[in-house]
């Protein structure tokens, strides 16, 4: 598929086609419709990724990786696990700098916590807090040692 053909589809449609294994090119960002820019300004705006003057590559921060994912996949649709319309991007390999389409999973907050193991940790902390509230005591092992 050429870039011109890909422009006929929305970002969500292109993403879904990639998920189905269709080779769809990733489009570079373009300027807002209705603005007038010089040719030089248009050329500068066309540089993105490794061609951009401020590209940091793997030296980018974790937060930068998340921002890249938001820009690369703006319209993501519902959670792929439970169908919740409020969803977010999950990096399957845990590396936020790897924003390849096959490394991004669209999940809701709850499913994201479940995949990362944060949901079980939160539940165990809630149980511990509940035990303290009900019984008024909690003594971790390091506090029980004499000495």
Description:
The chain is built from 7 helices and 2 strands. The protein is mainly α and 147 residues long. The chain has a domain at 59-134. Strands 1-2 form a two-stranded antiparallel sheet. The radius of gyration is 22 Å and the shape is elongated. The model has no long low-confidence stretch (mean pLDDT 79).
Which features would summarize this protein structure in a list?
elongated; mainly alpha; 147 residues; two-stranded antiparallel ribbon; single chain
Task: Chart the SSEs and their pairings.
Blueprint: H1 3-6, H2 11-19, H3 39-46, H4 62-72, E1 88-91, E2 104-107, H5 109-116, H6 118-135, H7 141-144
Helix percentage = 40-55%
User: What structural category arises from helix and sheet content?
Assistant: mainly alpha
Order of helices and strands: HHHHEEHHH
* Unreliable stretches covering 5 or more consecutive residues: none
Q: Oligomerization state of this entry?
A: single chain
The separation of the N and C termini measures 73 Å
Instruction: Report the portion of residues in β strands.
Output: 5-15%
Total beta strands = 2
> What spatial order of strands do you see in the largest sheet?
1-2
Q: Count of helices? A: 7
Shape: elongated
Determine Rg (CA atoms, Å): 22 Å
Mean pLDDT: 79
How can the largest sheet be summarized?
2 strands, antiparallel
